[in-house]
Amino acid sequence: MSAPLLDVRDLVVTFPTRRSEVTVVDRLSFSLESGEIAGIVGESGAGKSTAVLAMLGLVRHGGRIAGGEVLFDGRDLLSLPREELRHVRGSQIAMITQNPRQSLHPMLKIGRQISTAYRSHNQATRPEGMRKAVSMLEMVGINDAERRVTAFPHELSGGMAQRTLIAMALSSGPRLLVADEPTSGLDVTIQAQVLDEMWDTVQETGSAVLIVTQDLGIIANYCDRVLVVEKGRNIEDAPTRKFFRAPEQDYSRRILSLQRQEKLPEPEESHGSEQPLISVQGLGKEYILEGGEVLTAVSGADFEIYRGRTLGVVGESGSGKTTVGMTLLRLTEPTTGGVLVDAEPIGEIPLSAFRNYRSRLQVVFQDPFDALNPRWSVHRLLREPLDLHTKLTAADKRERIGEIMDMIGLPRTLGAVTTRQLSAGQQQRVSIGRALITDPDFVVLDEPTSALPPAARAEIITLLAELQRKLGIAYLYISHDLTTVEYLCHDVAVMYLSQIVEHGTRSQVFEDPQHPYSRALLASHLFQDPDQRRIDREIRETLTGEIPSPVDLPTGCYLASRCPEAVPECRERPQTLETLPDGRKIRCWRITEGDLVW
Amino acid sequence: MTARQEHPAAAQRNILLWVGLAIVATSLLLAVFGEVLSPYSPVMPTGNISTPPSAQHWFGTDATGLDIFSRVISAPRTDVTIALAAAGLSLVAGSLIGLVAGFYRGSLSELIMRVSDVIQSFPVFILAMILVALSGRSTFNLVLALAFLYTPIFIRLTRAEVLSQRSRTYVQSARAIGASELRISFRHVLPNSLAPALIQASVVIGWGILLTAGLSFIGAGVRPPTPEWGLMISKGANSIILGEWWPSVFPGLAISLTVFGFAAVGNALERAYR
Predict the structure, then answer these.
(1) What pLDDT is stored for residue A37 in this prediction?
(2) CB neighbours of A162 closer than 8 A, spacing ≥ 6?
(3) Which of A178, A120, A168 is nearest to A142 (CA)?
(4) Nearest C-alpha of chain B: how many angstroms from A374?
(5) Is B251 helix (H, G, I), strand (E, B) or coil?
(6) For residues A562 and A254, is the Cβ–Cβ distance under 8 A?
(7) What's the pTM value of the predicted model, to 2 decimals?
(8) Which of residues 315-344 of A touch B (CB under 8 A)?
């Protein structure tokens, strides 16, 4: 076998601090063949990004490359003269970063930016550069590339900006593409489109790709090999399939723990006679924008939640998931419809009296650091709900706080520290403790894991499931991460552009989705299973285009503009949520009237 | 590896902070012990009229025979105390009003901000003069006038921070567990919004010293023969033309140094906070 394209040997990167030096990348070694796609996973702060930057001879301000070699095509990049390194970096190694919009120059048209990048490494005239830009944009799947080259970055959506960066990176035909969290912040349908385009493109060009990510779905679906980085060290280097089947390291087993666990047992169907804990009827929320336009966040939501069960609400950003959760808690007031808790309409309770009611209805937010007062100790944060809702003595409160800390798996010794000193996973545990300390019947979980690193993500989901079994709480689990939804939820509601489009049990929605949007969403989701890779499918179902604005919604079906199954009637006819014989609800006339059968 | 490596600019800032702190500490100490430490009484003529600096009178004496050194180190009791009181008062008032203006948006908030605009649109010195003239020339009125002038600064700073804090999720989280708006604003938002105002306070104390001295210089501040820097400069100004520089220059230096000290501390705190 010939020498590998990239061969990293004992790479060390250090950052000096006040007292000593922190080693961020510690003797990291690996190699990459041409045409190979490798993924680097690890916790935030494990040194992944620093390591890939160092491979290009770059270090963030203050740090230095303290040792090692990066052999690219047999030459050590770290000992190359600057000018030569710069040339290699643009023409043979290209990089895609996260935050695509920030990586583009805001005042230059994108065509010119691609053309400039291309011409700085290739002999080409301006018109040639422009033609290259158009063809690159076409290659990464941007429609109407001729017109798009004259767009400014702010005119592009996040997905388009990321594709533009990929086009720019690939314009010189690099032999190695380094992508640092290339799709974080993009919605799943867009993520699938972007990654598919990238995958197809590198298949054509034979480039090697190195993807830094925290998303095991991306690894399972697109990568041939996995490198696990912990504390700057490469602790595992395995082919993807082997990694998912039999991870060797303890850390790898932790991040894969959800995949390796049994799913929740399918709940018995017989909640029929039982009274629902939460009953939502015709819930709608509209915002009047400046200029009098109406933004519809939620329209016509109907659903029930039963004691001890979890309803998952899934959908892309802007679909109204969070607004539904916030109206259930009266953190926003609905425009139409209402919420019944134990058959009592909570909308009729005056807001000042409703404060006492809040101990029963709780919430856990997405970003635990932002959701906890940064100046307060863990103990004080956990005590606040008790101060507000109970008349316990100080000693009883301490006792209860101790109990809850045991329950959420936080050592009691951490009571005195502020949240800044805790890891993201521990912070989220405090949030959960604060929600549970008053023994609520119902908790809204608003993306509780999406701000967490992979290991903490799996642990928090397991904890939430365990607490539900123990305490019989009902959850509304809002998430775009279908992997966690599948693990935690009994019922699932799929939302698109303010409406619930499909609502059924987990197995109905996950195993046999009916609504075209549910189907596309599930197909776009990167399940963490290397045996069902998206790129191996005959037809990679997804949606074209992007989510339309929730201002001035169409009269007909909201999905019609993106739906592959749309017929002219869809654009005219308002859609209603109808019940199918198997009990699930669907908002698509073609399905409910039997016009479309999968 | 264990050697302390510091950026030269950071080291320079550190020096600035320490110099500032030393000056601030000295001025505070003198505000308390200045009169005790002074070799002569700051208000009793020594009999030696207009003598230049010497071993006997380090900073010389003025036209009425008062010892300049004793007066310079006794003055902080007036200048620093007035500035401290005014800054403290405006800090408390400003951050409370700023909290209300930022947390409860509405017509009251608008009114508060427009009134602040009006106060801040006047030249500080002129407005201070008018206020003291209207309310009468006393130390207490001087403090009130200064506090009134500086309150809008703290309103603005606190309000801006409150506006950014109140959109943070912990506020929503407190609401979700049933905390009242009053509790949320005072227990959660206010403590998290105070830092910019506290940092600015140091700078405002410096301005307060300058303004007190300025008002006294034109005769709108404290009454003679109180040891006060502005008053001393004003009294000595007449004799500069005769070549007697010392009655004005030493109190002038004292003002510059003190204002610089407070500003340096404020500056360093601001950088540390960012």
Answers:
(1) 92
(2) A96, A100, A182, A183, A186, A194
(3) A168
(4) 8
(5) helix
(6) no
(7) 0.84
(8) 329, 331
